[in-house]
Amino acid sequence: MVLTSATQELFGCLADEDVTGESPYKLLKKDDIIQDIKTRAAVSDFSPVKQIVLDYPEDELLLVYDRDFTYEQCFYLVLTPEAKDRILNPPEPETSQVLENVVNKTPEPKEWISLGSELEIDEESIKETREKLWYKFSRVRRKFGVPVCFSDRNTADAKDGYLECASYQDSRFSIKQMQRDCGMQAVPRLQSSSAQTQWYRNIFTQYVPRELSDEEKENILQFESLNNFCNSVTPRVLQALQQEEIMNGFFDDWKALGAAAEDGDWSGKVSEGLMLYQAFTDQKYTKDKKISSINWHPTIYGVLAVALTEQKEERTKDSTTFVVTPSVILFYSFSDPSIPQLLLECPDDIFAFEFCPSDPNIIVGGCINGQVVLWDISAHVTHLLGTQPGSKKVSVKNKTPVVRYCAVSALESRHKAPITDVQWLPPTFEVTRSGLPVENKYNISVQVVTCSPDCTIMFWDLRMQRLLSHSATDRKQSVDQKTQMTPYSVPDTFKHLDRTWKPLFRVLQGLRVHYKTHSKVIPDYSQLRVPSAKTATILEDVNTKLYIGTEVKIPTNKINNIKQCAKPLHCFNIHHWLVNTVQRSPFYKDIILTTGGWNFAIWKEGVMDGPIVLSPSSEQVCTSGCWSLSRPAVFFIGKDDGSIEVWNLMEKTSEPAQVHAHITNAKITCIKPWTASSKQHFLTVTDDIGMVRVLEIPKVLYVPTRNEVRQSNHLSCTHFKEYYCCLFTYYYVKRNNNVLGEGCKQNPALQHIYCIDTKPVHI
């Protein structure tokens, strides 16, 4: 059973406080459960087992806290008195008694019981599966006993005088290799390298260093020429070491003066790395929590929102106090970073949330319990605008406004696992109940897509359905009841969806998806209705393929079609661990960045033989990634050691252009860029201890070069792989006046492009 925090507090069974791993049992009175079902009706967590509770013969039921998720949930309810008695009073183990005067008897063989091992032995044994061929050889009797004389002859003298039995691969059948024996040697460090060569077979090479013997060493040390050389070189080496201690002989003074600044900027030394601009934290809400998602407000300057989730690390046994903090989304502002400016109340921890592109006051979020939540912050926009520079402060004395959610999806129609990603569909189209993309007549975003590790993708519609499942009287009673339970006013924007919201369409096999949307129309969702599917115009030119990342060691990149969702179209096992980022390039909609495990990959739609760029395996796990908003070839990768790598494909493809270590002392959970103005670009970094850091991106990383802009325009109509092959080869040929083949061999950048076409490239 899944018990919400409100139910746990009501029945006195708070996890890790009232019930723990050492004392997981809690007796619940049958009358209290029945009263809760009558009071909260379908909202009660015990409503699915209502009939079982009514038929239970005793007055108390046993509730057990399943800390190890043995039955895939945090609690389980015992349904029979016999099972309750066995759990509370387990039978005592039989004690071994020492028998005296035991007579040693010869053990007798027991009857053999088959456990399936004979099948394994039978599979490993060699059996003849084909009938034997019988051959008969004969010769004329008069040739018996005749002496034989062998001599040499030319094979060309006689026809068919030489037959070659060469091995070849028979296409009629294939043998699957089940097991392979390979010898391995432990090495102190992992090193990855690659080259543009064909792969044929696995080869292991072992070697030992060649060393001089003791006699050879003594003979060399006795050479007079060696002694003279050491005597003449030693003073100069000592002098160089002393100078190195005093000053750095390789320090670039000209660059330090600011001569490298572009466009005559002589304001001082130009920073080429990420610089800390602002930091946000709040001990009241972020203690023992990590940040799972972050988004900048689309229209208000300097305002960002973060979602918090509980840390999964087990608490120490010595801690006796445990404070349950509420599940909220925090709004921070540059004007007052000390306290949150707004709080969004959540029914449970939020893994992902997004602002509506049509109306930034509407926010959708995905809960850890699989439900979808909607907020409307229209009434608090004035408060957020009051935090802007030069505006008048809203008179709120040390009290942060709290916004309650407008609607939450039905509990029985939720995801069976945490929602890992949520996106708004573009305003240009919508999806019908059968999964067909049709024209969106409202031209605003009215549908949301969510995904979860339960291998499902759900499409949700925000408009009121034409056929309501409840009558008007029942709906009015439920609204009145909710109004009485609400301690403060809630906007009625999505009153028609609250606790009755169900998905419009489901797609199997899903974890993380991505859509890019934009609209400036501010809709009134309470007045919208779902149009009839008969009058909708089906759009044939809409791309219905989804790129999905999984979290287990199975093919980690899938391409599904929402029209044909039975099986994935393509599967790629590229990442060795869960895929945490699937993001399209803001410049090229067919270029996708994925991160997961110890590497990242860049994909191109239409190229289905694998990624076009695959990074070498790193020592640290890649926890997040994002594209630059101003440079097509630049993207950022976050690591679990708190470092950030800046990659620039225009310069290097084998290693990052910059590595910023110790951005935070904890694992990075999210990174997201934001463009404040044409001369101010930020990168937001969050970690799993609740800290938000806003880093200012230097000019060298957000101002594209002239060549980059021109070549980026060329990239939109040219094959991605051919573009980079031509780009790097042209750069090398121009500098070294060399041919294409030599450029590929000597230029290290070309050695790390993994999927270059073998056909000639025209320069």
TrEMBL record:
Q: Which InterPro entries match?
A: Dynein_IC, WD40/YVTN_repeat-like_dom_sf, WD40_repeat_dom_sf, WD40_rpt
Q: Does the keyword Cytoplasm apply?
A: yes
Its main subcellular localisation, reduced to a broad class, is cytoplasm
Its domain of life reads Eukaryota
Q: Where in the cell is it found?
A: Cytoplasm
Q: Which GO terms describe its molecular function?
A: dynein heavy chain binding; dynein light chain binding
Keyword tags: Cytoplasm, Repeat, WD repeat
Provide the Gene Ontology terms for cellular component: inner dynein arm
- GO terms (BP aspect): cilium movement involved in cell motility; inner dynein arm assembly
Q: Show the coiled coil region(s).
A: none
Instruction: Give yes or no: UniProt keyword Flavoprotein.
Output: no
- PANTHER family membership: DYNEIN AXONEMAL INTERMEDIATE CHAIN 3, DYNEIN INTERMEDIATE CHAIN
Q: What is this protein called?
A: Dynein axonemal intermediate chain 3
Per the UniProt entry, what species is this protein from, by scientific name? Dicentrarchus labrax
Its lineage opens with:
Eukaryota, Metazoa, Chordata, Craniata, Vertebrata
